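Can't paste images in this forum, so I'm doing it all in text. The chain is below; anyone willing to post the predicted structure tokens underneath?
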Amino acid sequence: MVISSYYPRILAVCQERSVKPTKHALYASIGEQKLFAFEDGQLRKAYAISSSRKPPSCVENSLGTPTGLHVIDEKIGDGLALGDVLKGRVPTGENCYELDAARNEVNLITTRILWLRGLEEGVNAGPGCDTHDRYVYIHGTNQEDRIGQPNSHGCLLLNNADVVELFDATPSGALVLIEE
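Text version of the structure:
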């Protein structure tokens, strides 16, 4: 698909699912490793991302990025410094820019979290496939040099400056459509 078709695709999926479109909406293209942010139907910004190393999947424990229509359910980390590390959605007191190389080999959750909730029962919501229960986020990473190629365990990764910008510009309740 071309960029101009992403917002109409969001609208079409909303109509199919009887979901009211939101002023702010995100479209994640796994194939392109890009996230497109829309406001009032206009492209606001495109971000390079990293999706899962494994093939896309909504199945629990698959480590694949879940597809389908989602909503930003919770936002965590407002005010944290660039590179601050979170574990269990709580700051650890570490900053990835201050860690040794061995510690940075582990893909960490950094800076901000936008926690996703699936809106499609039996696809990405409910037993065995629930995006929220799988702890799938849009978040920063300490492995910014790998952005643009698959590198996550199911989440959508952005570089730390981009995740702050996205976090600040995108409210809870905004729709997120993730497609291959």
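The chain has one domain: 3-179. The domain at 3-179 is CATH 2.40.440.10 (L,D-transpeptidase catalytic domain-like).
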